[in-house]
Amino acid sequence: MSAASSSLACLRVALLHALGLTAAAGCTRPPLGDDPGTASGTSTGATTSTATTAPATTGVPSDPTTGAGTTTTTTTGAGTTLVTTSTTGVDSTGPVATTTGPVEPATTTTTTTSGTTDETTTGTTGPACVNLMDLGDELMPADVLEIPGCENYNASDCHDYLRICVPLPDGLQSCDQCAPDCLGPLPELCPDFGFTLACGPLSVDGQCCHVVEYSWNCTDGRPFLVEGTARTAAPTRRRDWQADAPGPSPAFLAALDAAARAELAALWTADALAEHASVASFARFTLQLLAHGAPPGLVQEACAAQLDEVAHARLIFALAGDYAGAPVGPGPLATDDALGGPGDLAAVVAAVVREGCVGETLAAAELDLAARTCEDPALAATLRRIAADEQRHAALAWRTVQWALARGGPALRRVVVEALAVRIAAPPPDRLDPALMRRHGRLPAAERVALAAQCMRSVVIPCARALLDDLAVGRPTADLPV
Fold first, then answer.
1. Do residue 416 and residue 337 come from a single domain?
2. pLDDT (tens digit, 9 = 90+) per residue, 4-20?
3. Where is this region: Disordered (predicted)?
4. CA quadruple 51, 57, 61, 66: dihedral positive or negative?
5. Which of 214, 246, 262 is where one domain is finished?
6. Same domain, 282 and 401
7. What are the DSSP E strand ranges found in 368-469?
8. Are 394 and 356 in contact (CB under 8 A)?
9. How many CB atoms lie within 10 A of CB 60?
10. Is this prediction's pTM over 0.70?
């Protein structure tokens, strides 16, 4: 079993255990955050390296805050951005099952993953189909706001947009007469994209058009989104945000030329700024939990998450300073209008699924693998520490969704499925040699993409399926792969 597969098996076991659900066997490595040379060690809130076999629950789950482990929350800023769009899963070559609208799907694709290997079997039934992106013109979020009738839509940098047009239906004089949905069921659409109507109908050259919103491509942990845009502070020269912790050895850094040190310093600075912004994201999340009457365990863990983000930001700012040879810290972070936007339980759940159940799960996997390939002991220890916290933060997200589903009922089920439509977009090309990046605790772009796809398939989707099956009380989750 590869190091990545073994680590992902342990991550899946830990998350299922946190939900109080039966965990699949296959964890043969120490928990995230442990020194790989000391398999007997354990980390707070993480499972041991043996398989967990917690009893399965039935019906509506009990208060998830009583589950094992304590949760604090962090964003690594590791920059995991993902490839392919899929509401329910990703295989090694492209998307698998999803929905084509807000209703229960009529056609599904089933993906079977054997153990923790990369093998996937996909079966699709039905007539030939076309991809959603072949049906319209791609739009940037700023383009959406310039379309008459869409000016007030909350377009987000974390979503993708298309304008799809169809002929005016027979017998109608204007597109207003086929509102609110002039597109119809689009029966030829492949089951590869979940989408919602963003705005419209709009009359363009005698056709009726809608702007549709699909996929989610912000998977860097917990971004601080305000009106659809991820905010971070600007970097500045200051020492107070640098943790007093061991950094890479001088000899390790001296082996780098000036250009490589500058590039690594820039990458670590961007990660630190993302961690810093996550403090604000979790502050808002705490307020949302309070607004919806969440149990004290979840609120306490969300509060602890903010402090954890501060600690992680300081650790990574220290790394950035080590590589830059000068102190690095954050400037002011704009928080105006941060509490605007939809605050209903469905919107909160969708954000938690995307940013926590997906983003933080992927960040934990990426950081753990980066720590295993890093050649400097101090740097590897920092990455293991953050990876362990990310695992607990992901568990907090999954337990929050579990609590919300128990409270909100079946109506939120669709929200969870649609929120899993993440687009794993290839990150920017690496400017450094892949072997050098691994030595310094950073996964090359191609490896990040492959790991993200494998993590979606072997961790995120199995956890989502187990959670929804547990709540379905015997009703299979046909909208998720096996």
1. yes
2. 888 899 999 999 999 99
3. 28-127
4. negative
5. 214
6. yes
7. 422-423
8. yes
9. 13
10. no
Pick from 211, 342, 339: nearest CA to 283: 339
Smallest CA-to-CA distance from 234 within 274, 265, 282 is with 274
- Number of residues assigned to the chain: 482
Nearest Cα to 79, choosing from 384, 367, 472, 434?
Answer: 367
Q: How far is CA 381 from CA 110, 149, 192, 264, 368, in A?
A: 39, 52, 39, 18, 10
Residue 35: strand, helix, or coil: coil
Same domain, 315 and 462: yes
Unique residue bearing structure tokens 């009529």: 106
**Residue 226: its pLDDT value, please?**
83
What would the pLDDT profile of 268-300 be if each residue is shown by its tens digit?
999 999 999 999 999 999 999 999 999 999 999
Distance CA 386, CA 231 (A): 22
CA distances from 413 to 110, 432, 474 (A): 19, 43, 15
State the residue for tokens 């600007």: 234
Q: Give the pLDDT mean for 86-109.
A: 31
* Residue pLDDT, tens place only, 200-246: 998 988 899 999 987 666 655 688 888 778 899 999 999 999 999 99
Give the integer Cα–Cα distance in Å for 409 and 61.
Answer: 12
